[in-house]
Target: GTPase Era
Amino acid sequence: MTQRAGFVALIGEPNAGKSTLLNRMVGAKVSIVTHKVQTTRARIRGVAIEGDSQIVFVDTPGLFQPKRRLDRAMVAAAWGGVADADVVVLMIEAHRGITKGVEAILDRLAEVGTGRTIALAINKIDRVEAPVLLGLTKDLNDRYAFAETFLISAEKGHGAHDLRLWLADRMPEEPWLYPEDQIADLPMRMIAAEMTREKLTLRLHQELPYQLTVETENWEERKDGSAKVDQIVYVARDGHKGIVLGNRGETIKAVSKAAREELSEFLGRKVHLFLQVKVRPNWLEESERYSEMGLDFKDGNA
Model:
């Protein structure tokens, strides 16, 4: 058997559906999916097996105009994912079409895409009529010479299998990079922290998504097969702590319950999850926080 293995970078604007597609390709939840833009911070790798091919997906942060250090580090990580990949898939939302952000990405691809295999995936195709979709497909291919175009619905699965087969055929001939049963190369501590951060983001809506981070401080394997997980939610201000805790601690209790249930299901065993909320005013300027998120602190320099 000739094995194939390689890296695929999913790029696009925030909320284009990259995390949803990654989770569908891998068959498990390894990247957080919310209705909030810009929830993917680290370049999360999900591993999919298709025939003799192992496809390692790099789910990059959404590409946008960065303003703060964290934003700049995230955008640098996204383009770093492009540089490291064997194949790049640009995801665009059908109903939004060619936005200024998409135009900026196409311009950058013209600079860095030479010699690379770059495919186009137009997502959320159920939101537009066929003539609009055909027009958008033509416009995009007129602007950039994509190796292939796929019309998909990452949420419903339409077209995703065809994309996966195409990617599998384009992986380089080399031994698999990960064990067959491994679906992600992130440490469980980070996956657990991402799950909790997702629940906080969903619960708090527009109040805090950028102003908090979650770290798994301790992970203890117990004799009964369960795991005790201690996490810290860092917020930037005292006022934020009260928001995260909620009235009589109701918010943090609900978040802890939801995260515990999802983590238990993911691991297939019981998890005891304990959350603490701490104020850390300058966490956005601390290099250790970036390392925890898989980002390079130096990339955030202006």
